[in-house]
Amino acid sequence: MICAYLRQMQLFNVTFIADKHIGKELESWLLNTHLPIVKATGLFISERLLRVLNPQNDGITYCLQFIAENEDHILLYKQEFMSAVHQKAQEEFTERLFLIESLMEFVD
Predict the structure, then answer these.
(1) Would you kindly state where each structural domain of the chain is located, as residue ranges?
(2) Can you give the pTM of this predicted structure?
(3) Which residues pair with 68 in a beta bridge?
(4) What is the DSSP track for 18-56?
(5) Do the Cβ atoms of 11 and 103 come closer than 8 Å?
(6) What is the predicted pLDDT for the residue at 1?
(7) CATH code of domain 4-105
(8) Three-state SS at 37
(9) What share of the chain is helix, strand, coil (3-state, %, to 5)?
(10) Secondary structure (3-state) at 21
(11) pLDDT, tens only, 25-79
């Protein structure tokens, strides 16, 4: 059973779907540019990069997951920082990248 503290935390997931030909370039960019920018906000207590092994598309799919102490930190990130970070991604990978965001809560 999950403790009350973990139940308050929220997971913010950003899925990046890209052409498979830019997979290594995207992975490097996510690790060396995107993650440091988001970490610098100080709004998340942990973050991780995952690669989807069985994507439902012909490209390559990565997920960036950020854990925040509460939804307020995620909302602040979305209001103050997210559009600039996503704009950098779109500029770097023009028309070769699709982003999906999702907010999740811990259930168990």
Answers:
(1) 4-105
(2) 0.83
(3) 10
(4) E-GGGHHHHHHHIIIIIHHHHHHT---SEEEEEE-SS-S
(5) yes
(6) 45
(7) 3.30.70.100
(8) helix
(9) 45, 30, 25
(10) helix
(11) 999 999 999 999 999 999 999 999 999 998 887 889 999 999 999 889 999 999 9
